[in-house]
Amino acid sequence: MTISTAAQTLASLIFALSGLAALVNPVLFARVVGWAIGSRGTAEIRINVGALWLGAGLAALVLQSPAVFTAMGIAWLSIAACRVLAYLVDRPSERRLYWPLLAGEIVTGLLFLA
User: Fold this and answer.
1) Contact 111/60 with Cβ under 8 angstroms?
2) Residue 17 and residue 57 in contact, taking contact as beta carbons nearer than 8 Å
3) pTM of the entire structure?
4) Phi/psi of residue 35, each to 5°?
5) Which end of the chain, C or N, has fewer beta carbons within 10 A?
6) Domain assignment of residue 10, given as a range
7) Number of folded domains that form the chain
8) What is the mean pLDDT of residues 49-60?
């Protein structure tokens, strides 16, 4: 296994495990990202974050495709760029985990593109 393949596999695992965490405990996920949610929000996190991230991460793991890794890397770096833009435009009041999440998004994106 090359360093590049190991990095991309690690990124896929991070993505899948993050999805699994949101699927299993959407309330904790919401708390980490600073969302106030009700029962509908809990279901939506479980569905739209948990299932999507888990499925995408597992697909990347199984397919081991350069095109998939590139798409995932671009997606994660787009999320990071949007986080910076959102900070400038929205000025979120809760910033405790804002920058660590940005760092995680950049690292995950770069691992996918390794």
Assistant:
1) no
2) yes
3) 0.85
4) -95, 135
5) N
6) 3-113
7) 1
8) 95
